[in-house]
Design brief:
mainly alpha, Farnesyl Diphosphate Synthase, 0% strand
Length: 271
């Protein structure tokens, strides 16, 4: 780790979804991991509670410069730029992620669903498109990856709604949803989810479920069988996590899938 990066908060094995699992081509897994390591390092800067907004922007701009030219030496950025050039993949995917993370450094609230979706356009969509392009799939496959990655991002926001507010004063739950049910932000500090906040969260989850259904319609578009299986697996994870978030209280305890849940999702992939 260099002076630009922060201490990593988690690795690829701790994510909700598999990062370059064995379902994918063995040849491509290391390249997906390179993209993940870049994204994780930059995301951890944006989410740091120890850095000022100004310092976060400064560090993220160094990541941007490292991607755009060779004058700034940040290994994770250089590694990603190399595989993008080798595979003729746009570096815009990396730049869009950085745009989202710089937004995270300064933006604390989201007015409505459209504003949140626009954020996901930069924070989540590039991940799926990078993997689609790496597999040389046609752009029509974005019709599956875009809503799926967006849904995964929002599910993560719901999972972390308490920590995001308490640790970095950030709220992704759209203000229109909170106002609709007369939710006060201080309710996110409580040890349980009150009824009106539960209704607001359920409303967000209902909108997210539509994204998952949209992705599900296009999952068979992909020609690469391994990528198709991986996508189906991730879709099953998204469906299971959404169901769990509807049933359990994200303020009482962080909601996440256990090993048995993942096994069930994996089994459904091959049904």
């Amino acid at each position: 780790m260099n002076k630009v990066e922060t201490i990593l908060t988690k690795n690829h094995k701790q994510e909700n979804f598999p990062v370059g699992s064995w379902l994918l081509s063995k040849k491509l897994r290391p390249q997906i991991l390179i993209f993940y390591k870049f994204a994780r390092a930059a995301d951890d800067i944006a989410d740091s509670s120890n850095l000022t907004s100004k310092e976060k922007i400064k560090r993220l701009n160094l990541f941007k410069k490292a991607i755009e030219n060779n004058k700034i030496k940040i290994q994770k950025a250089q590694n990603l730029k190399k595989i993008c050039l080798q595979n003729k993949i746009k570096i815009n995917y990396a730049l869009n992620l950085l745009k989202a993370f710089k937004q995270d450094a300064v933006k604390k609230r989201y007015k409505n669903w459209s504003e949140l979706i626009n954020y996901c356009k930069y924070s989540a969509v590039p991940v799926g498109r990078f993997i689609i392009d790496l597999h040389k799939e046609k752009k029509i496959s974005y019709k599956c990856s875009d809503p799926l990655c967006t849904a995964l991002q929002i599910l993560n926001h719901v999972q972390d709604c308490k920590d995001d507010y308490n640790k970095i004063n950030r709220v992704y739950l759209p203000s229109t949803f909170l106002k609709k049910y007369n939710v006060k932000l201080k309710q996110l500090k409580k040890s349980h989810t009150e009824k009106n906040l539960r209704l607001a969260i359920n409303d967000v989850l209902t909108h997210t479920e539509k994204l998952i259904k949209q992705a599900d319609k296009f999952k068979k578009i992909m020609k690469n069988n391994k990528l198709s299986k991986e996508t189906t697996f991730i879709l099953e994870i998204a469906k299971s996590l959404l169901k769990l978030l509807k049933e359990k209280d994200p303020l009482k305890k962080k909601v996440f899938l256990n090993n048995f849940d993942y096994i069930k999702c994996f089994a459904k992939t091959f049904l």
